[in-house]
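Reading a protein record of the kind used here takes only a little practice. These numbers are not coordinates but entries in a learned vocabulary of local backbone shapes. Here is one such record, which you should read through line by line.
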Amino acid sequence: MLWVPPTGYRRLVTNYATPSTTPGASIADPATANTKSSWSSLGTLTADAHLLRFGFYDYHATGSNNRCLVDIGVDTSGGTSYSVVIANLLAGYAAVTDVGARGYQFPLYVPSGSQIGWRMQGARTNDTIRVLFDAFGAEGTPDWVATTVDSYGPDTANSGAVNVDCGNSGADGTWTEITSATARDHLGLITALQPRGGATITGLGYNFDIATGGAGSEALLIADCEVALTTTSEAIATFPRGQMNWVDVAAGTRLSMRGSCSGSSEGMDAAIYGLS
């Protein structure tokens, strides 16, 4: 299914209207690793939103475990009593702004007057992560936007996700289950990847595939989602940069992933977000 967005999208909210070398907003790690921070506001919608865009950056340090998860919340009354709408989005190993933020785009409906918030947890303590945020609304009624996001694979115990072993030197690894059964019908999936928490990261490229079907009979669904690493512990990019893969997935479907590495693999965390 090819989804064509309607014409007339306009930006409703942005948190980097003023030029800066450190644009957007920041949140500090709690003093205890792998625990949720307090919520922080990203802005209030002036009209219905149909697309949320996030760019996470500056959560990296050489020789450190840079795993990180971010929750996105909404208070439809415009206050700060947030309900989670996107849970445990992988945001660790995020590069500096001149390299490029870890980007995600969610075609998600949020009503006018809602306040958008975010919070984080990380494997480190007393550090910060930054985010660039935009919300867009359509002039007309979009052909399709999500109202629900299900997260498959993140692990709040260590701020990581399901460990996927990868094949070396371009070979495919074995399939690893991300979820045994999807919670509902999905019309699209977004993938997320990050190093699995090692203190030393080698500059390598990785590709990941997603499949449906039972163990031993996996059927390829999405091919070659990319992530590239540098030795400064930065997850440079995910391709197609956290955007929607428009694929129909029925409720109860088993999803799995496999990876391949340009050199000797160190393995990766992997998660999938299903939109309905």
Observations:
- The longest strand covers residues 219-229.
- The mean pLDDT is 89.
- The chain has two domains: 10-137, 149-275.
- Residues 149-275 form a domain with the Jelly Rolls fold (CATH 2.60.120).
